[in-house]
Amino acid sequence: MKNFEFLIAAYSAIWLLIGYYFINIGRKTEALSKKVEILESEKKES
């Protein structure tokens, strides 16, 4: 039964890391989208 607990802990840790990774990628994508919008609006002005 102890091995099963380690398996659950390992899967939990992996899913937490994957979740953190996707949240991080989402934040970076959002920041890049905002920068692109700023650059596009500056391009239109000039």
What this model shows, in words?
The protein has 46 residues and is mainly α. It has a domain at 16-46. The protein is 96% helix and 0% strand. It has one helix and no strands. It has one helix spanning 2-45. The radius of gyration is 20 Å and the shape is rod-shaped. The termini are far apart.
Would you spell out the secondary-structure blueprint of this structure?
Elements: H1 2-45
**Average of pLDDT:** 94
Bulk shape: rod-shaped
**Beta-strand content estimate:** under 5%
Q: What distance separates the N and C termini?
A: 68 Å
Described by strand count, sense and barrel closure, the largest sheet is: none
Oligomerization state? single chain
Assign a percent range to the helix content: over 70%
Number of strands: 0
Could you spell the SSE succession in H and E letters? H
Low-confidence segments, given as residue ranges, are none
- Class of secondary structure makeup: mainly alpha
- Number of contiguous helices: 1
Q: What is the CA-based Rg, rounded?
A: 20 Å
